[in-house]
Amino acid sequence: KPLYFKAGINDAGRVADKGSKCTWNKNADRSTSVHTFVDWNVPRPKIFPDALAVIGHTPLVRLNRIPQSLGLECEVLVKCEFLNPGGSVKDRMALRLLDDAEKAGVLKPGYTVVEPSSGNTGIGLAMACAIRGYRCIVVIPEKISHEKEFVMRALGTEVVRTPGTADEFSPEGLFGTVHRLIKEIPNAVNLDQFSNASNPLTHYDTTAEEIYHQCDGKVDMVVMGAGTGGSISGIGRKFKEISPQTKVVGADPYGSVYGYPDSINKTDVEFIEIEGIGYTFLPTCLDREVVDHWEKVLDKDSLGMARRLIREEGLLIGASCGTILVGALRAAQKMKLGKGHRVVVILPDSIRNYLTKFVCDQWMEQRGFQEAVNTGNHKWWDT
Ligand code: PMP
Hints:
Pathway: Amino-acid biosynthesis; L-cysteine biosynthesis; L-cysteine from L-homocysteine and L-serine: step 1/2. With 383 residues, this protein is α/β, with parallel strands linked by helices. Helices cover 34% and strands 14% of the residues.
């Protein structure tokens, strides 16, 4: 495959080094960052200066029905990242990418931000660029929901779609298109969420710290999905350092190659309905070394569980939340977590992104997924 990406920041903007590791020189990276640890002594403001200031500090909520219905006795808490102002966990990272790039002098007034995304980073960047006054172009694959596209467009961002058939690294694919736009547009910068260390560091510095603080340090398992790998690598690494007994679990759709050992990824699934998690290449930001266990999940189980989260727990969440909860419940059962144990599950995005997709009964029926909703406790952990 042609290599479209070189490491570092050059006149083509910040681009990924496919196949190499994200720089994890934490101290060096942190010293150039405007964000450090969460300071718990600073009270939350009564009035926020702008929408970006609302990002983070999301609530942890207990699940009261779903784990119990499956006979699980451990406590399952969900981290409500869908309550961020742009509607997803990616708001945190988009803001930090922008802040760090401004601080490093890579991004200057009048510049254009160009980013490949499955939509949530795009929405986070679109919001931040609307507020800060940058032109923003987001490249998304064909399968991404119209809801995400419309949100970005409403925020003033230009959206480019790439064909579902195109390999991500081909000239007409996701990264190839970003590369072309960066070359064509003067002063265009790709902050590159797939390889930028500011991505995992966001979660290392904030999301993981919040979870640890909210749980008073008692977390037996933390479960996430992986798209760029930023959340799982950042949260996983922080927990390995401050709470090494906490198990770090990844939930990965069939059709993706993130699971480890690699043999668990074997499947004939070619299309992943769930947006935002799983690819057929390993992003630079994904550090599989901090993940203790992976669970593979089918679309029907993910979507069935996402609908249960909405119907039974009243949480207005998106599709990958279903994947991640299925992975969490299976892993908790396999690791025999019982009374007194605590599992934290990251819920990345919101129902708003999928109103015409899995939230719509007709859409579910047309794809044969309705049964997964109707049968409630179908045998999803046997698959
Ligand atoms: N779920 C959804 C819906 C997402 O959009 C993303 C980000 N692509 C993730 C999960 C995974 O986050 P990360 O990129 O940090 O791995």
